[in-house]
Amino acid sequence: MATKQAKAPAEGGAAGGKSKLKLIILGVVALLLAIGLSVGATWFFLSRGDKAAEPAKEEASAAPTRQPAIYQDMAPAFVVNFNQNGRQRYMQVSVALMARDQAQLDALKVHMPVLRNKLVMLFSGQSFENLITPVGKEMLRQQATATVQELAKQETGAMTVEQVLFTNFVLQ
C-alpha cells in the first residue's frame, strides 16, 4: 500500500508539470500573437497615412512658392525728438524694409524722401510712455508698416513692402 501512495503523488506531479508547460507555451504563443497584431496594425495605419499625405505633397508642389525675402535698410537711422512733461526726449530708430520683389522695391526707392518724411512724422508723434513698453514698440512697428504699405500702394500700385522691421531702437 505504501508503494501505491508513493506512485500517486509522482503521477500527479507529472500531470501538473505537463499542464504548467502547456500554460507557458500558450502564454508565449499569445504574447507573440499580440506583438504580431500590434506590428501589423501599426504598419497598416502608417502605410495608409503615407498615401493620404501624398496628395497633400502634390498640392503643395503645385502651389506657387514664396520668393525669398529681400531686406532694404533705410540709412541713415531716424532720430526724432519729442517733449514729455517739459523734458526733451530723443528716439533713434534704424529701419529695414522686407519685400519679396526686387523690381517693386526699386520702384519704391524713387519715393524714399516721401517715405522718410511720413515715418519721421509718425515717429515724432508718439508718446514716451507708450514707447517704453514692448507692446507700444510693436504697435509703432505695425503703424509704420501700414504707413509704408499705404504709400507703396499709392505710388507704385502694389503692396511692395511686407513688413517694416526695427533693427535698432534707442530711447533717451
Look at the structure and give the CATH class of the largest domain.
Answer: Alpha Beta
Considering the protein shown, what is the CATH homologous superfamily of the largest domain? Band 7 domain
User: How many structural domains does the protein architecture include?
Assistant: 2
Annotation, overall tally of beta strands = 3
Order of helices and strands: HEEHHHHE
Quote the distance from N terminus to C terminus. 113 Å
SS content category: alpha+beta
- Give a short account of the largest sheet: 3 strands, antiparallel
Strand content bin = 15-25%
Spans where pLDDT lies below 50 across 5 or more residues:
none
Radius of gyration: 38 Å
Strand order of the largest sheet: 1-2-3
Overall shape: it is: elongated
What's the CATH topology name of the largest domain?
Tetrahydropterin Synthase, Chain A
Can you tell me about this structure?
The chain is of the alpha+beta class and 172 residues long. The protein has two domains: 1-65; 70-171, Tetrahydropterin Synthase, Chain A. The chain is built from five helices and three strands; from the N terminus they run αββααααβ. A three-stranded antiparallel β-sheet has the order 1-2-3. Helix 3 runs antiparallel to helix 5. The protein starts with a helix and ends with a strand. The relative contact order is 0.11.
